[in-house]
Design brief:
The protein is mainly alpha-helical. It is 89% helix and 0% strand.
């Protein structure tokens, strides 16, 4: 009985799938993937730039480097200058880290979208050519075809019923 139900559902859903496939534009999927990959390259470049800037700021925040950056500046309060420079670098580093976190999240999301788009493009390419899809749609739209399918289903159901009845008689 499960077989009959499966076959019936298959035959009922084939026209729906064929019409949906014909409606989709298979040429746009590869273009979308390429556009997303270009965006990913831009995001990766921005991420690398921010990582480099973060490393530079970490290096600049070392006490000896703060001291060196203020070596040519004369002041009566060098401690305040060093503290001011440290605060400025810390604020900038924290801003760069926040941007880096956003760019990293963006990159991860973009990679997930690319994987999804690649899967969809693969599925569309595996479905076949648009001409084949149109031929399938034309065949499923033919009313004679539906009558033939219905007759086949009735015959299968009849065979299953006969098989079940015969099995029950011989089981006694």
């Amino acid at each position: 009985m499960k077989l009959v139900l499966s076959l019936f559902l298959f035959v009922a859903l084939v026209p729906l799938v064929a019409s949906e496939v014909a409606a989709q534009d298979s040429a746009s999927a590869p273009q979308t993937v390429e556009t997303l990959r270009a965006q990913l390259l831009d995001v990766k470049a921005k991420e690398a730039e921010l990582q480099s800037r973060e490393r530079q700021l970490d290096e600049d925040l070392k006490p000896e480097n703060i001291e060196r950056s203020l070596a040519g500046v004369g002041s009566t309060r060098p401690e305040e200058l060093r503290e001011s420079r440290r605060r400025q670098l810390t604020i900038e580093r924290d801003g760069v880290r926040a941007q880096l976190k956003l760019v990293t999240t963006s990159r991860e999301r973009l990679e997930a979208v690319i994987r999804t788009a690649e899967t969809q493009a693969y599925q569309k390419s595996a479905e076949g050519s648009p001409l084949l899809d149109q031929a399938v749609a034309a065949e499923t739209a033919n009313p004679g075809w539906w009558l033939l399918v219905l007759a086949g289903l009735v015959a299968m159901v009849g065979l299953v019923v006969v098989f079940v009845i015969a099995r029950q008689k011989y089981a006694r």
